[in-house]
Every structure is written in structure tokens, then in C-alpha cells.
Amino acid sequence: MVLPLILAVLGLAIGPLLGIVVDRAVERERPEPFHRCRDCGTALGSRSLVPIASWFIPCPTDPTHRRWRYPLTDVVTAVAFAVAGARFGWSWQLGPYLALFAALVVMSVIDLETHLLLNILTGPALAVGLFLVLTLSGANNYDDGIWPALIGAGLYGGMMFFFWRLYPPGMGMGDAKLAPTLGLFLGWMTTTPVNAIRIVLFAMIISFLGHAIIGLSLRAFRRIGAGAELPMGPALAIGAVAMIVLSDQLLVAG
Ligand SMILES: [Zn+2]
Q1: pLDDT in tens, 104-113
Q2: Closest Cα to residue 173, out of 157, 185, 186?
Q3: CA of 77 to the centre of ligand 1 (A)
Q4: 0.85 exceeded by pTM
């Protein structure tokens, strides 16, 4: 119980820094040691990096300006870190999956705001993931996890690329580029190719169903227009995190 709490606090502290990465990617400007108002661009000062307290700093220009993104980033990071702590405990896998979850928070928030998964993030995420899988597996007597990880990456990437070619409006090319990283970390949870295939398929089904249900309910409540598309990236991230957390319960040894 202690570790998830510690990690939740760590997540709250790291959230504002992840927000700076999001700023950089969304605005395409140099990183700054503070946040800006999402509406008018007014600098919010270094206080805007203080966890939780910063949520209540109003925009100096107009207090009514919306600023849901920074609190959202902080809270989601805290929850994701706590979940990783509950799942992995003090194991060698905790670090790599914390890094994955932080990267997924950044990419999901950017995708929500811009409907883009940026190559500058999806490419390095896969490279770092491959590096971690190849080095940490051997160092921790977990060689059995290497092939399932590679199979997961190839399978998820291949399937999403196929879907994108089949029906390009359904998702972005960025989704197909994020998928190999998700497949890599999903497969790495297992030690057999069969389970790697299972966990990737489960994650994909959860993502597609979740995306469809949320999209349809938003439309039903008229929160988004008929032509508007909900970005796929956050759904892929949530499906992968769900399967990483639940893999023990849902995968039958085989
Ligand atoms: Zn403002």
C-alpha cells in the first residue's frame, strides 16, 4: 500500500514536468520553466509547476480561461504511477513501466489536444523500449520475455498498419506508429508467444470497444459533432495499461 502512495505523490510531482513536454510538442516552441494559459498564452510563472496548488492559479488576463489540461495531466500521471506500483511492487520491471506510462500520458494528452501522435515521440519511445527489453531481460534472468516482446511489437504494429491501410480515415498513421511500442511492453509481460498474441489481441479489443463506446456516448450527449473524431491514441494507451495491470488475471498460463 505504501509504494502506490509514494508513486502517486511522485506522479503528481512529475505531472507538471510532463506538461512542459506537452507544451513543447503542441506549441512547437522552446521549453520554458512554467506553463502558459491555454487560451491567451499568458505566462503563468514558476508557481504553475507546483503540484496541485498550481491548479488554482487563475489566468492573470482572464480568470475564466479554461485550463483543464494541466490538472488532467497531473492526476492521470499520479493514478498511472500508483497503478504501476500496485502491479509491479519493488521489482526491476517497475522502472521501465513507469517510463512507459509517463510517455503514454504525454502522447495521449497531445493526441487529445491536437489529434496527432508525433513521430518525434513515437519513434524514440519504440527505440527506448527495445533497448530496455534487450538489456534488462538478460540482466534479470528474464530471457523468456524477449521473444514475446518482439512478437507483440510486430503483431500490434502490423495489425494497426493493416487497419490504417484498409480504412485510412478510421485512425491516424500515428496510431500505427504507437502500436509497436504498446505491443512490445504488452508482450514483455508474458513468457510465451501464445500469451504475447493473446495479450495484444485483448488490449486491442479493449481499446477499440472503449473508443467506440466513449465516442458514441459523447455523440449521444452532443458533446462532439457528428463529423468530429475522437482521437484513437488515448484509447490504445488505456487498453494497453488495462491489460498490463490485469494480465495476471486474464492470461491463462500456456
Ligand atoms: Zn488566459
Answers
A1: 999 998 888 8
A2: 157
A3: 24
A4: yes
